[in-house]
Design brief:
About 30% of the residues lie in helices and about 15% in strands. The protein is built from 3 helices and 3 strands; from the N terminus they run E-H-E-E-H-H. The longest helix is centred in the middle third of the chain and has 13 residues. It starts with 5 loop residues before the first strand and ends in a 9-residue tail after the last helix.
Length: about 100
């Protein structure tokens, strides 16, 4: 990561009423890591989120997750979120 990396913590993006500008999109993920969560919009019990960053940064963050013993999201939670985001009957805002 670069010495001037910014973290955009955008866990409430799904609650916005309309489209919004995101620092990560303005930067093109050049020096910004955007993190978000589905726990505010789908279910607090899912405890599943996402990270948008440069591909080589993602690899380093995965290594960090493994090294710090965070197990990640459950397969059931991941499948529920995938269905909610890809099912045509779900009208989710994808900020």
């Amino acid at each position: 990561m670069s010495p001037s990396t910014a973290i955009e913590d955008d866990i409430f993006a799904g609650l916005q009423l309309g489209p919004a500008l995101h620092l990560a999109s303005l930067d093109g993920l050049g020096s910004v890591i955007r993190i978000g969560s589905f726990s505010k919009t789908l279910s607090a019990s899912l405890r599943c989120g996402y990270i948008a960053a440069q591909p080589d940064w993602i690899e380093a963050l995965i290594d960090l997750q493994v090294a710090t013993n965070f197990g990640g999201s459950s397969p059931v939670a991941v499948e529920l979120i995938h269905t909610a985001l890809t099912d045509d009957s779900c009208h989710c805002s994808r900020g």
